Amino acid sequence: MVRTLYVGNLPWATKPEELAEAFAAHGKVVGSRIITDRETGRSRGFGFVEVEDEDADRLIAEMNGKEFNGRVLTVNEAKPRGEGAQ
């Protein structure tokens, strides 16, 4: 089973591959994506990482508050759409 993690406070230039690589050092990453503005195509500073269920809690504990390319990440379990912004 896969769980989705929200990752906030990302540097604007972060690519999905870089995000996946950072998390892959701590567990199995299934996928990653960076959320961009529809009109400008610019990163909105957050994204999502899909990880194996058994790795999710450990990844949150290890990556939340960790510095990534000069910024301190906010990592928690993503909420399904409609449960509020993160």
UniProtKB/TrEMBL annotation:
<dbReference type="InterPro" id="IPR012677">
    <property type="entry name" value="Nucleotide-bd_a/b_plait_sf"/>
</dbReference>
<dbReference type="GO" id="GO:0003723">
    <property type="term" value="F:RNA binding"/>
</dbReference>
<dbReference type="InterPro" id="IPR048289">
    <property type="entry name" value="RRM2_NsCP33-like"/>
</dbReference>
<dbReference type="InterPro" id="IPR035979">
    <property type="entry name" value="RBD_domain_sf"/>
</dbReference>
<feature type="domain" description="RRM">
    <location>
        <begin position="3"/>
        <end position="80"/>
    </location>
</feature>
<dbReference type="Pfam" id="PF00076">
    <property type="entry name" value="RRM_1"/>
</dbReference>
<protein>
    <submittedName>
        <fullName>RNP-1 like RNA-binding protein</fullName>
    </submittedName>
</protein>
<dbReference type="InterPro" id="IPR052462">
    <property type="entry name" value="SLIRP/GR-RBP-like"/>
</dbReference>
<keyword id="KW-0694">RNA-binding</keyword>
<dbReference type="InterPro" id="IPR000504">
    <property type="entry name" value="RRM_dom"/>
</dbReference>
